Amino acid sequence: MISPQDTILDIVYRHRATEAVFRAHGDRAGACILCESLFESIESAATRYGIDLAALLKDLEAAAAGASLTKGA
Q: Residue 58 class from Cβ within 10 Å (0-12 exposed, 13-18 middle, 19+ buried)?
């Protein structure tokens, strides 16, 4: 399970497929989350970039389990 308090670095390290999720959500937010917030918690980065935390966590869980991104999240 991925927690909002996990750092982005920890999640990408444990689940390589989540990198695409951070890139997709960052593109929609107009920022490179992996470039600017790698050491922040998921929750902190979501707040910083105005990203829906629940949608981000859902996409991260799906990617970690091998599924695809949700549409329009």
A: middle
H runs (alpha helix) in the chain: 8-14, 18-29, 33-36, 42-49, 53-65
Write out the chain's pLDDT in tens, 73 residues.
Answer: 899 999 999 999 999 999 999 999 999 999 999 999 999 999 999 999 999 999 999 999 999 998 655 544 4
Contact indicator for 59, 52 with CB cutoff of 8 Å: no
Q: pTM for this one? A: 0.87
Residue 69 corresponds to which tokens in the numbers above?
A: 């991104």
Tokens 């670095």 belong to residue: 9
Nearest to 51 by CA among 28, 72, 67: 28
d(CA 20, CA 50): 18
